[in-house]
Amino acid sequence: MALLEAKKIASQYQKEADKCSSGMETCEEAREKAEVTLEAQRKLTAIWESRSRQKGWRQEGVAKSHVQSQGNVQAV
User: Fold this and answer.
1) What pTM, to 2 d.p., does this model score?
2) Nearest CA among 66, 2, 57, 17 for reference residue 39
3) Is position 42 within any domain?
4) Torsion angle in degrees (nearest 10) through CA of 14, 18, 21, 26
5) What is the DSSP secondary structure assignment for residue 17, as one 8-state letter?
């Protein structure tokens, strides 16, 4: 009887562990997608900022941007 109960509890723990692993995989996939999207947005922002600077825009009183900290900007 104790062995049957132990198997039942072990099975429940395994199901919970599987749910947790699945959730972690989903979370990791979402994080990776967000990271790719963020990098693409940074590149686009850098391009627009570079174009603005070429046309005479000057950044005043604003924190340093990605373009300033990264140096040269390449088109996407």
Assistant:
1) 0.54
2) 66
3) yes
4) -160
5) H
Model pLDDT, residue 69: 52
The pLDDT value given to residue 75: 47
Residue 31: domain span: 25-50
Residue 7, number of CB atoms within 10 A of its CB: 10
Burial class of 46 by CB neighbour count within 10 A (0 to 12, 13 to 18, 19+): buried
Task: Provide the token pair at 9.
Answer: 């509890």
Q: Which of 47, 37, 45, 38 is nearest to 74 (CA)?
A: 47
Q: Would the CA dihedral through 26, 29, 34, 35 be positive or negative?
A: positive
Q: CA–CA separation, 71 vs 65, rounded Å? A: 10
15 within some domain? no
